[in-house]
UniProtKB/TrEMBL annotation:
Coiled coil: none annotated. Keywords: Magnesium, Metal-binding, Transferase. Substrate binds at residues 34-38, 46, 50, 78-80, 82, 84, 201, 207-209. It is an enzyme of class 2 (transferase). This is Isoprenyl transferase. GO terms for biological process: polyprenol biosynthetic process. Catalyzes the condensation of isopentenyl diphosphate (IPP) with allylic pyrophosphates generating different type of terpenoids. SUPFAM superfamilies: Undecaprenyl diphosphate synthase. GO terms for molecular function: ditrans,polycis-undecaprenyl-diphosphate synthase [(2E,6E)-farnesyl-diphosphate specific] activity; magnesium ion binding; manganese ion binding. The keyword Transmembrane does not apply. Mg(2+) binds at residues 33, 220. PROSITE patterns: UPP_SYNTHASE.
Length: 253
């Protein structure tokens, strides 16, 4: 809270009303799109865009943490991204071992806890080692949960969850009626995270791309043309302000 009030005193977001300390979204997810186009527009190879995108992860994580957001889920690698050229896939798979050693001290100092969702199977050992070390290193932290979606696809997540439930029914541990809107989330990889309040997608694409399909039922959506490496704190505040200005009715009047 101290940090939040400090932020209030010192750092009014430019171009609009200050962000209110209340009605901050608990859980924000971001589809970090546009790294490749950003790189190309600067005459650089695509991988330079991914590295710039990686650097931006820290900036937006700190901004979210300072605001009091409880969980930030970042779409870092989808189940479809394996179809990219091998060189690019290899580069993306090495990003965790570049990112965490560089940023873990500051993340820890800010009480950030690392988490991952997605299928471990298929991810290289070195990627998992870097992510697991960061998860272990931050497991007692109580601030923002920084949740990386890696080798994640929502249809796959739903199928795996339902298969697990079916196995539990088969073994007599559960009855089909045990599956309700309340219990369903417990079979998903986002289990235990707050309801998803706000989804941001950068780079001008307006689609969901197999991301958190169940969790998005009542989520507010924010699309921007800005490429991820250029998505700044100010852009983030703009999305938050928009969220705060919306009336969420959940189907009621
Ligand atoms: C989509 O942009 C972006 C990705 C597939 C990778 C996103 C990953 C990061 C930003 C870094 C994650 C950091 C860690 C530590 C795991 P694109 O390549 O599809 O861009 P384009 O649509 O312009 O080609």
């Amino acid at each position: 809270m101290d940090r939040l009030f400090g932020w209030f005193r010192n750092k009014k977001p430019p171009g609009g009303e200050p962000i209110l300390g209340e009605n901050v979204p608990k859980h924000v997810a971001i589809i970090m799109d546009g790294n490749g186009r950003w790189a190309r527009s600067h005459g650089m190879p695509r991988i330079a865009g991914h590295r710039a995108g990686m650097k931006n992860v820290k900036t937006i994580t700190m901004a979210a943490n300072d605001l009091g957001v409880k969980a930030l889920t970042l779409y870092a690698f989808s189940t479809e991204n394996w179809k990219r050229p091998q060189e690019e896939v290899d580069f993306l798979m090495k990003l965790p071992q570049e990112f965490f050693p560089l940023e873990i001290d500051e993340l820890k100092a800010n009480n950030v806890r690392i988490r991952m969702m997605g299928e471990r199977e298929g991810l290289p050992e070195h990627t998992l080692r870097a992510v697991d070390a960061a998860i272990e290193d931050t497991k007692h932290n109580t601030g923002l949960i920084l949740n990386f979606a890696l080798n994640y696809g929502s249809r796959r997540e739903l199928l795996l969850g339902m298969r697990r439930f079916a196995e539990e029914v088969k073994s007599g541990e559960r009855d089909p009626d045990d599956l309700t809107e309340a219990t369903f989330g417990g079979y998903l990889q986002s289990e235990g995270l707050p309801e998803l309040d706000l989804l941001i997608r950068t780079s001008g694409e307006v689609r969901i791309s197999n991301f958190m399909l169940w969790q998005l039922a009542y989520t507010e959506l924010w699309f921007t043309d800005v490429y991820w490496p250029e998505f700044s704190e100010e852009h983030f505040y703009e999305a938050i302000r928009s969220y705060q200005g919306r009336a969420r009715r959940y189907g009621k009047l």
